[in-house]
Design a protein that fits this description.
about 140 residues; alpha+beta; Nucleoside Triphosphate Pyrophosphohydrolase
Length: about 140
């Protein structure tokens, strides 16, 4: 197994964009990469684990909540390079969309805070453009049913 910094292959990251009414569940990263940044719940897929099982596991570990059926929302490559242009991190991120089903959101595992936020309040969280695109794609995926 390779390390996440300067990997010899992309890591598969799995995210779950959860809606409760018009609100979206956001988490503040508690560990690198992107420590302190607000994002959507997710993490690395384990060997032998399906992508959907990984999404549900990460969601439970990071937020303590359960969701209904999952819909594929978007696939994104997140690549961070060092000053020499080498890939410092490379994640292929598969994001699913789902509706909240049960549980009170609480910070766990790799996150320091969790919040439900309406889109009108997203500016306070300084979300990346990729996160905004993923949330929009998730909303579309759920609307398509």
């Amino acid at each position: 197994m390779t390390g996440r910094e300067y990997p010899d292959r992309p890591w598969v990251g799995i995210g779950c964009i959860v809606f409760r009414g018009d609100q979206v569940l956001l988490v503040r990263r508690g560990k690198p990469p992107r420590i302190g940044q607000w994002s959507i719940p997710g993490g690395a897929q384990h060997l032998g684990e399906t992508a959907e099982d990984a999404a549900r596991r990460e969601l439970r570990e990071e937020t303590g909540i359960e969701v209904g059926p999952l819909a594929l929302a978007i696939v994104v490559d997140a690549i961070s390079r060092d000053d020499a242009g080498r890939a410092l991190y490379h994640y292929t991120i598969i994001d699913f969309a789902a509706q909240w089903l049960a549980g009170e959101a609480r910070a766990g595992d790799d996150v320091s805070e969790v919040r439900w936020s309406a889109p009108a309040d997203f500016a306070a969280f300084d979300l990346t453009e990729a996160t905004h695109r993923a949330i929009a794609a998730a909303r579309d995926a759920l609307a398509r049913g």
